[in-house]
Amino acid sequence: MARAMFEYTKAVLEKVSFNTELFKKELEKAVNRLLPYEIKELFYWLKDFTSNKPELYRCLAIVEKTKRSF
Q1: 17: Cα within 13 Å, side-chain hemisphere
Q2: What is the pLDDT, as a whole number, of residue 69?
Q3: Which of 21, 26, 63, 65 has a 20 to 30 Å separation from 41 between CA atoms?
Q4: CA distance 23 to 69
Q5: What is the C-alpha to C-alpha distance for residues 42 and 38, in angstroms, rounded to an integer?
Q6: Least confident span in 7-11, 19-23, 33-37
Q7: What is the pTM of this model?
C-alpha cells in the first residue's frame, strides 16, 4: 500500500507541475503522509524531475528540510 502512495504522489506532482504554488502545496502534503525512506526517494526523484524546471527547483528545500530530521 505504501508504494502505491508514493507512485500516486509522483503522478499528482507531475500533473500540478504547471503551477508552482499548487506544486508546493501538494509536496507539503506528500511529505506529511509518506514514510521516511519514501521521502528520501522523493527527494532524488524531485532533483531529477525539476532539473529543467527552475521555477520548481526551490521546492526541493521542503523535502530536504524534512529529510534531514530523520
Answers
A1: 18
A2: 63
A3: 21
A4: 22
A5: 6
A6: 33-37
A7: 0.87
Tell me how far apart the terminal alpha carbons of the chain are, to the nearest angstrom. Answer: 22
Mean pLDDT score, 33-56: 93
Banded pLDDT at 29 (limits 50, 70, 90): very high
Q: What is the dihedral of CA 68, 52, 5, 30, to 10 degrees?
A: 50
